[in-house]
What we know:
By secondary structure, the protein is an alpha/beta fold. The chain has one domain (13-269): TIM Barrel. It is built from eleven helices and eight strands. The chain has helices at residues 13-22, 34-42, 54-57, 69-82, 100-114, 127-136, 152-155, 165-181, 193-202, 223-226, 248-261, and strands spanning 26-30, 47-50, 87-91, 118-122, 141-146, 185-189, 207-210, 218-221. Strands 1-2-3-4-5-6-7-8 form an eight-stranded parallel beta barrel, surrounded by eight helices. Helix 4 (69-82) packs parallel to helix 5 (100-114) and helix 6 runs parallel beside helix 8. The longest helix has 17 residues, at 165-181. Bound molecules: 3-methyl-2-oxobutanoic acid. 3-methyl-2-oxobutanoic acid (KIV) binds at residues 30, 49, 51-53, 91, 144, 187, 189, 210, 220, 222.
Amino acid sequence: MSAQNENPEKITNRTLRLMKERGEKIASMTAYDAAFAAVLDSAGIDFILVGDSLGMVVQGHTTTIPVTIDDIIYHTKMVARGVNRAMLMADMPFMSYASPQDCLKNAARLMKEGGAEIVKLEWGELEIEMVRRLTECGVPVCAHLGLTPQAIHKYGGYRVQGREKKAAEKMKQDALALEEAGADILLLECVPMGLAAEITAQSTVPVIGIGAGPDADGQILVLYDVLDIAPGKRTRFSKNYLEQAGSIHDALKAYVDEVKSGTFPREEHAFR
Ligand code: KIV
């Protein structure tokens, strides 16, 4: 990966914030190795997430729970070697940020050993404090709200979050509190499109959606869903870009172009 000052095109947190201010859509996707990261980078993706979804799509587990910090570091190192322009985000896996000590130690490992430029953690009552601590240490953070798959056994299934008035109000308050604690990006998963639009409007930091409708500042999808090689049923909010494309590069470029032009996602990919 080139040093930032060698690449004037390098996407940073600041670039994403300016894009939000200018109303330019942000396109992002997961990747887990150098080869796919390089194709995504050349297709113009703005940031790549080494998601703990790798537990399901790469390792073959039925949830993200078994993924370890060493797994994420291993995959982040590979992705870092394939990336030149895109910002690199790495997920903090289940229970790797349950105490402030673990949170800081594991975020430092993702950055120092993995090469991550921003870390992501999933919403829980402890998250605001963790975001504050990371911010105080100069660690950029993305806070994941809505459906948080690490809590799957608590929910008892993958479901749209924030449909009831009380839950929607709580999510709006949480989003504000996370931003106030220093979150640089908010990520909303499986949230009704109206609620996602309200959170996007109230936030000064970029809001990235997955199953959150067209009004978020940007979109993220899981690479293996887009290439239709994820195990199991295809999710409503995803789209197979490979079926219309002549190559993987063209498929990923079509995704970037559709996000940027606002043609993805459509209402059929959103929840009410
Ligand atoms: O792990 C992951 O891939 C994610 C995305 C669903 C945003 O968190």
